[in-house]
Amino acid sequence: MIAVKDALAAGLRASPASPESLLACVDYLGYIIGRFNAQGRANVAHLLPRVATARNEEDRRIVADIAATISTTETELGLLLAAAAAFRKEPERRMPDLLKAGHRFVVYYNTVLAARKNPAQEIIGRYFDDTEYWALTDDVTPASIEAERSLFLRVTAQAPPGSGFPPREAE
Q: 87 and 95 in contact (C-beta within 8 Å)?
């Protein structure tokens, strides 16, 4: 995910920007961050009753912070995805909007997501044993693995120079 965010940032710096590269990055980030957000919402839903029962105010604040971050991430990702959708409908008019949304998302990612350590794993360990937790949250399927693989291969095939991905042929 970090490598794809970095590829998006490199694509935004390219002149001219490659729409294929930008859209490949946006599609991957939309998928993978969407999955992380869904898992985060499930974590919050499972944690809230246990934290309430424990009456642990610090843990309640941590869960509230996780929920707030998921919400702002969904908003920021939604703006990026909407700009990509608008670009796909009107590419001749919407490139500036896609670039602006891309820059905004990269700044958000770097200043909010990358700047914080995810406290969820620590708090989850206080309220769930590993077996129970994974039974509640494991949503990895062959289809989800293939979807991510396909999206990632598209990113690497479209990666701009300076993205950290070596040039390669599309599969």
A: yes
